[in-house]
Design brief:
0% strand; 9 helices; Tetracycline Repressor, domain 2; 2 domains; 201 residues; mainly alpha; Arc Repressor Mutant, subunit A
Length: 201
Amino acid sequence: MDQEIESQPLKVLTANEVLLAALKLFTSKGYYKTALTDIAMLLDLPDTRQIYAHFNDKQAMAVQLYATILDSLSISIDEIRRKNEKPSEQLRGIVDLLFRLTDEAPAVMRFLYLLKHDEFILDVKPLHETAALQKINKIIQSGIRAGEIRDLDPNLIYAQLFGVVNATLCAVLNAELEKKADFYLSQTWLAAWPVVARKSI
């Protein structure tokens, strides 16, 4: 008696699942070394058809990842601003968030901090022009007006404060520092904040 062979139903993927796979590969293999076939393989797909159902090419994925990550960061900054009254507390909350994301979502932070977006995203908006960074700049301006932060160019204050923060996070992401980001959080804040603070908070 012939047995009926049931064909396996085709796995249906969401755009988000494709993006997560692309993010993993972009930040481990590199953008240029990642092919759509690699993404399909990671997703256990027989070919790239389902990927093309959501994205025309890997550049479209990179554009979407960049926008999504920065939108999420912008929303998180809004929440931090609502929960904390003082600009110094808001800035500390943002630094806490960045360190937590480095430990909990390292691929996201590698994409944001380590990849050179302007090499593969056409007309990419520089980080300092994005909504998230503009909100940080406004917090710095509020801190200057409130007398918490030195009366200098807000862009210089950002460079001084987040230069220390970002250097630490990049060192963690590049495994130049051996412990998790959270281990270095307090030390980094103690090194960065006094550089820009008008007085001890």
